[in-house]
UniProtKB/TrEMBL annotation:
Transmembrane segments: none annotated. It comes from Roseofilum reptotaenium AO1-A. Pfam families: SBP_bac_3 (PF00497). GO terms for biological process: amino acid transport. Residues 32-266 form the Solute-binding protein family 3/N-terminal domain. Belongs to the bacterial solute-binding protein 3 family. Keywords: Signal, Transport. SMART domains: PBPb. This is Amino acid ABC transporter substrate-binding protein.
Length: 285
């Protein structure tokens, strides 16, 4: 019985150790690049008039073209919705870890300890923490002070929340959750239900624009970001060749400048998108 058990153990270990098909090989064989993109993260991924749009769509179309040249065959870009909810099958990290997508493109803050089974690419964008508020609140709002007694909206389970709770201990953090959290927080800030909403500058502008707000209808403070945040794509940690391929695409294209150019083409040089991006690049790059 002991010998049989040992033999079974060896078989199980051997079966578990067999490598999964490498991603580049899979893409070449199937002709499909599967990319996770969120629908609640303008300008990276959002829905406009029923159409899925965003910077990640544009970037992944360029990446698909590179893969077509590499493999000398047509490649279909398949966009699959990802979310912040890791309890669901379409959680952004879970989707990558489980092989539902080959990578996830979005505002993923690079950290030194990504979730197990995943890894971040090199940075493709930089931004930082800002406060969004009504213009009339700006006069009284002092981001270099303590913000004592002010209601500051934050998204749950984010680095921004941790920063606000650490830096502004006398403020009152108001939590927002779920895919609609950012949308609701900005609405509350514009109604005056909360004093301000703290988040990544590029995402604040993106959601404000998506809600139809003009730059004169809201204010961002301070003039430069309070923190520096780098975004990376989420990749499976087991496939080093795929990681190198994605990082090479980012490096070759100078992705930060490409994203800035796309933004400029879409919204013009006078857009708040450009202002917060340049401010972040000046401070953080």
């Amino acid at each position: 019985m002991t010998a049989i058990a040992a033999s079974l153990g060896i078989l199980l270990i051997t079966a578990g150790a067999s490598p999964a098909q490498e991603i580049l090989e899979e893409i070449q064989n199937t002709g499909t690049l599967k990319v996770g993109i969120r629908k609640d993260a303008a300008p990276f991924g959002y829905v406009e008039s029923g159409e899925w749009e965003g910077l990640c769509i544009e970037m992944m179309e360029s990446f698909t073209e590179e893969l077509e040249q590499q493999f000398n065959r047509s490649i279909e870009l398949q966009t699959i919705e990802s979310t912040l909810n890791e309890a669901s099958s379409n959680g952004r990290y879970r989707s990558v870890r489980d092989g539902r997508v080959h990578l996830e493109c979005g505002p993923n803050t690079i950290s030194t300890t990504p979730p197990q089974g995943t890894e971040f690419s090199t940075k493709f964008f930089v931004t930082g923490t800002y406060f969004l508020m009504r213009p009339q609140t700006r006069i009284l709002f002092k981001p270099l002070g303590f913000l004592e007694g002010l209601d500051i909206g934050v998204l749950d389970d984010t680095l921004t929340r941790k920063f606000i709770e650490s830096r502004y201990q006398l403020a009152d953090p108001i939590s927002y959750t779920g895919n609609q959290g950012r949308q609701q927080a900005i609405r509350d800030a514009m109604r005056g239900t909360i004093d301000a909403f703290a988040s990544d500058g590029i995402l604040l502008v993106g959601e404000a624009e998506r809600q139809g707000l003009t730059s004169s209808q809201y204010s961002l403070l301070p003039n430069e970001p309070l923190t520096c945040i780098s975004y990376g794509m989420i990749l499976p940690s087991h496939d080093q060749q795929w990681i190198e391929t994605v990082n090479l695409f980012i490096a070759k294209g100078d992705a930060i400048n490409i994203v800035t150019r796309i933004l400029t083409d879409l919204v013009g040089v006078e857009s708040p998108y450009i202002d917060v991006t340049i401010a972040a690049m000046d401070k953080c790059s």
